[in-house]
Amino acid sequence: MKTTNTYVKLSKFLSLILRHKPETIGIQLDKNGWTDVQILLQKIQQSGKSIDLKTLQAVVANNDKKRFAFNINGSRIRANQGHSLKIELGYTPQTPPDILYHGTIERFLESIFQTGLDKRKRHHVHLSAEVATANMVGKRRGNPVILEINAQEMQEEGFLFYLSKNGVWLTEKVPVKYMNRQ
Ligand code: HQG
Question: DSSP E strands: which ranges in 14-109?
């Protein structure tokens, strides 16, 4: 029986492999971010970590943010969002809630209110429908500050929004005029 801590460690390792650096263990992702489950398991084992299919399934099922997904027959796996690698997730644009939230910290605000929210190293700016989620995202870095994003107005003015399979709202950029500090 693996402990929760082991699952969290494996989840972090999977994020590294499936979002950022598959070459660390010598695997490749296809253009949509998928990779073969058997090869993944084999390569992770070869890298010296203990993992089997059941453990991988438990990491995917119990992951706090549902970061990973299997395809329909379970032969392939990918991360639902958060990539720095250039891949095509294939999400279709959707109508967001009127207001979305972004959690950040005080130190970034001056720059954010100069240039808007940028996607930085990731594919998209990450936004959430719930203040509580934005709060947790901000907390990773320090005292959280919540920005309210006028998503309805952005959409009316032509910005596209995508909803990842695990409920994160994604968009290219948030210009300053659509943001308010809460
Ligand atoms: C900030 C985690 C200065 C932005 C979380 C953020 C989330 C700027 C940081 C997910 C800026 C980027 C994403 C600007 C943006 N000037 N700072 N112009 N524009 N920033 O980690 O949203 O565990 O790439 O405020 O829970 O913090 O990986 O984005 O602080 O859902 O699944 O630059 O990552 O999920 O940081 O977090 P990130 P994020 P996972």
Answer: 35-36, 68-70, 76-79, 99-105
82 pocket-lining for ligand 1 (C-beta < 6 Å): yes
Q: Is 20 in the pocket of ligand 1 (CB under 6 A)?
A: no
Name the residue among 73, 58, 76 with its Cα closest to residue 11. 58
So what CATH class is 4-79? Answer: mainly alpha
pLDDT in tens, the chain (182 residues): 567 788 899 999 999 999 999 999 999 999 999 999 999 999 999 999 999 999 999 999 999 899 999 999 999 999 999 999 999 989 989 999 999 999 999 999 999 999 999 999 999 999 999 999 999 999 999 999 999 999 999 999 999 999 999 999 999 999 999 999 99
Yes or no: domain 99-181 corresponds to CATH 3.30.160.20: no
Please give the number of the atom of ligand 1 that sits closest to the Cα of 127: 22
Which ranges in the chain are annotated with CATH 3.20.170.30? 99-181
Query: What secondary structure letter does DSSP report for 82?
Result: -
Any atom of ligand 1 within 6 Å of the Cβ of 120: yes
* Residue count of the chain: 182
The model carries a pTM of: 0.85
Decide: 79 in ligand 1 pocket, CB within 6 A: no
d(CA 176, CA 55): 44
